[in-house]
Amino acid sequence: MFAYMKTMSDQNSILLQINRVADDLRRGWPAAVQSGDTHLVFMPLEFAARDMLAQFDAFGETSRAAPFIIVTGRRAETLKVAHKGWSVVRLRREGWMRAVDFEALADPTRDLATPLKGPYSRIDHEESPVDQAAVKLVKIARLLPAVLAFETDTVPDGMLSVSATDVLGFDEIQAQSLRQVASAKVPLAGAENTRLVSFRPLTGGIEHMAIVIGDPPRHEPVLVRLHSECFTGDLLGSLKCDCGEQLRGAIKAIDENGGGVVLYLAQEGRGIGLTSKLKAYALQDEGFDTVDANTRLGFEVDERDFGPAAEMLKALGIEQVKLMTNNPNKVEGLKARGINVVERVKHAFPTNPHNIGYLQTKKDKTGHLL
User: Fold this and answer.
1) Is 163 known to sit in a ligand binding site?
2) Which residues are the active-site ones (predicted)?
3) Which listed residue, 178, 235, 307, 308, has the most CB atoms within 10 A of its CB?
4) Are 167 and 182 in a shared domain?
């Protein structure tokens, strides 16, 4: 795999540069990505306010051709643009588009306030590594996956640039670089004999947490739950999902079983981030289910990568698990990374009037075994 061909120094340098680019993008600043002789300068479409557009257009005065828009194939479907099965699609920057139109194109929660004009014209340009990497970078920055871009022979002075190959291998590199950075006993309600172990990439970035309950035996399968963080459900007690019940229920069940591990993964909203999840909630208020809301935003149904979970388990000395989950993708995700899942343990809770549709969608559209 890609990451194994990189030295530790190479990995650290790649992660550092990608995180710096993501930081710039979160501020609305443009960045560049390159593959071979192709350099793509781009900015997040949701930050295309008038002053930022003027600055971006000034950068593009020496570009090879007119600026264009890149959206995901998922978002293209919503915009009624045929995408030929491509993961990313180039659209023409139409003359009628103003700053507010760019922002609305990226953010479907603004459809009612700013009705989309269109029709939008696809540029017949097959998906390329630079286009895919630009969209991947705004996802890493926890922004909506749509950008304004242009191709150029040289990157403007002072602008950060990164290799498309490195960006597309980011998930693998980040998982491989996770290291234990802290460990402490933290008695929990329902499991007093508990230790929290924090994992972080060597260059910083998102931290994941292992909740080690009791003293799980390493010579036999360990009861494990992979739990993606859910600020609204875990902390606030939201009734729109069952996440809080699943987290607390897993801790209690593992303790009663004699020990095990809950991996608390920094993958809010199935990997799209908290702000984008709230946008998905807003679309659900308009009548879309949880799957359609994600895809209207331009994301895949599930953006999570289970590489970090597998690497954390290996670091804890665990290679055989009984996995508490209703999601077959978690089982396959761990198996693909060398973890032996010997049993799937059902982990479901009663519905309430607010999450019954959410759970039914999981069963009908994402294959959850409920």
Assistant:
1) no
2) 302, 304
3) 308
4) no
For residue 80, what are the contacts with CB-CB under 8 A and spacing of at least 6? Answer: 118, 119, 120
- Please confirm, yes or no, whether 302 is among the known catalytic residues: yes
Report whether 233 belongs to an annotated binding site.
no
Helices (H), the chain: 8-26, 50-59, 73-78, 99-106, 129-140, 164-168, 170-176, 243-256, 268-271, 274-285, 290-296, 307-315, 328-336, 356-365
Confidence at residue 4, expressed as pLDDT on a 0 to 100 scale: 45
Please list the alpha-helical segments (H only) found in 60-141.
Answer: 73-78, 99-106, 129-140
Is 123 found in the same domain as 200? no
Q: Is the confidence at residue 97, as pLDDT, over 50?
A: yes
67 shares its domain with 185: no
Model confidence pLDDT, tens digit, residues 11-48: 889 999 999 999 999 999 999 999 998 899 999 999 88
Residues 133 and 203 in one domain: no
pLDDT tens for 280-325 read: 999 999 999 999 999 999 999 999 999 999 999 999 999 999 999 9
Q: How many independent structural domains does the chain possess?
A: 2
Of 302, 305, 344, 364, the catalytic one is: 302
Is 347 flagged in the annotation as binding?
no
Return the sign of the alpha-carbon dihedral for residues 71, 92, 49, 62: positive
The catalytic residue among 166, 171, 304, 305 is: 304
Q: Is 51 a catalytic residue?
A: no
Annotated ligand binding at 366? The verdict is no
